[in-house]
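writing this on my phone so excuse typos. first protein, seq and then structure
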Amino acid sequence: MTPSARFNVFSMVFGVAYMGLFFWSERYHTALFRYYPVLRSFTREDLSLEAAGPAILWYSWLFGAAVIGLGAALVVPRAWAERIGQSWVWGVPTVLLLVILVYERRWFY
């Protein structure tokens, strides 16, 4: 499999996984791990705001999506990966980004 075919699979799966982890985290208030900048530490526990300050979940979404995307890029057969067109590789993450932006507009209006 060519490196670009693997990257096509990775980028599409990464986008879908990132959005899935984001919505899962928003819906169920959970994450793989949290980073607390005040404590300068990563933890799986949800610490109180008073004790640890606000948690950053973004690192958890990135890590989870990267692991899922890498796994998919290594598992998907070469014939399937090479049939993925560039319009899909660019289109799927773009649509997912627009979905997240529409969802997040609640913070601005």
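second protein below, same order as before
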Amino acid sequence: MAEEILVSLSVVIGISALLAILARIIKHPPIIAYIITGILAGPLFLNLLSSSSDTIQIFSRIGVAFLLFIVGLNLDIRVLKEVGKVSLFAGISEIVVTASIAFLIAYIIGFGGVTSLYIATALAFSSTVVVVKILSDKKEIDTLHGRIALGILIVEDFVAALALMIIPLVSSNFTIYSILLKLGTAILLIALVFSFSIFFFNRFMNYLARSQEALFLFGVSWALVLATIFNLLGFSLEIGALIAGMSLASSKYTLELGGKIKPLRDFFVVLFFVFFGSQLATAVNFHMIKLALLFSLFIFMGKPIIIMSLLKIFGYKKRTNFLAGSAIAQISEFSLIISLLAFHLGHMNQEIISLIVLIALITIGLSSYSIHYSGTIFKKLSGILQVFEGNKYCESKCKEEDYEVILFGYHRLGYKILKSLQKMKKKFVVVDYNPKVILALAEKGINAIYGDAADESFLSEIKLESAKLVISTIPEENPNLAILEKMKKANSKAVFIATAEHSADALNLYLSGADFVIVPQHLGGDYMSDIIPEFTFDRKKYKSLGEKHFKEISEGKKNSNYSTN
């Protein structure tokens, strides 16, 4: 049995790797490759997982636990305060509206009342795993739309966890008391976890940090232990892992902890998508495809419209509304869990489970593309999305001001440049797409604007034509090209300094009109080529320079908690 499981895992991982490489070549989201692997390895085709399905499922849930743990590590309480109300309102409203419409659709086309209720419940939730994975890959998890989407997903996960608790109770002799007891237990457990973390973990982690291995093992064990405890008490594993991460979010070692667990998370999350694809267990007929397409169209189009309409009430800009709405245009891993629970309780047959799995595969596949290319899609749809434009939330509080220097991006490079600008005593403003950055800079009395450099409407609001120097430390090519194009339209005479990770991007930016392009590895090489001939074999000079560099890195690391990477 062990050998069969090992062979199955090896083959599945091999297929995943090949398809992921192919997806990268043709520029498709890797999630698609993993889901296709699951379909191929499932019972409809190669049936490779018959002996290892339980193992794959366990591994996939470990991946989900690590994913939510890392999400919890990065949940800044100040940002949660900013988006908490809108996330709570939008999350609950979206569940109610989506479930109501899905129930009506299912009931009208001929499903029974109980089956329609389960289908509606399954379709009401969106996938935290899919959204967090893609937004993390795009480095947008800390943006405003990323935070709002994440907040909505957290609300949905809590509601889904409650649904998983209540469904078995409803099927047996339940009382309101038993439900309240469950909720009370959850609240008490969360309070105990945070109390324990506040009074014990700060000193304990200072000790653990002396050993990188000990810190890594502590993070893994804390995530899995709390996830398991919550799971055993009837709550979801996902909620336990999220709470584990949030309990450590105030620690100064969250970046190291998250960075060390990410490779482990990525491996197990791959198996999650493989497992999801393998759940397509029965033959798909034309009638099932028609039903799946109908529900998928509603999820893919309806959910974003519902979210955009709700966010408009709070006055957010149409771009923020669109990016947050399009992020949750799929159904959840909870949908599968709820369906399997209904099947075991005798409320649903295998065909309905396959229908829900097919809807999940379609919506996850489509939303993977829509999230991956959301910026491009927004540009094409910007005109017709005007109806979702809010008017209360001003993303550029300083737009009426004239600044000599505009600095786009406050990550590690931007932090260094900011120090120079402060010494020069020039009038400057920092533009960043991370709400945490804006909050941190505002606390220090530094002029800062929340905004997206790739958004043409935002760039129109800030006075690029008045600036004498525009600096972008954003390494992606598209935002830099957008700034350049806007500067040309505004007839700006400012110097433009861009940043590029690769030489090819730097050449393209020069050809497009950039005055200077920062390529970090080239500048680093030039710096060392000047240092080595001067210092040669003088260890004291290297040591002195190293100590200065160490202080700079340590200071920068404190600020990296509010950085976009």
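Confidence is low (pLDDT under 50) at residues 393-399, 560-565. thats all i got for now
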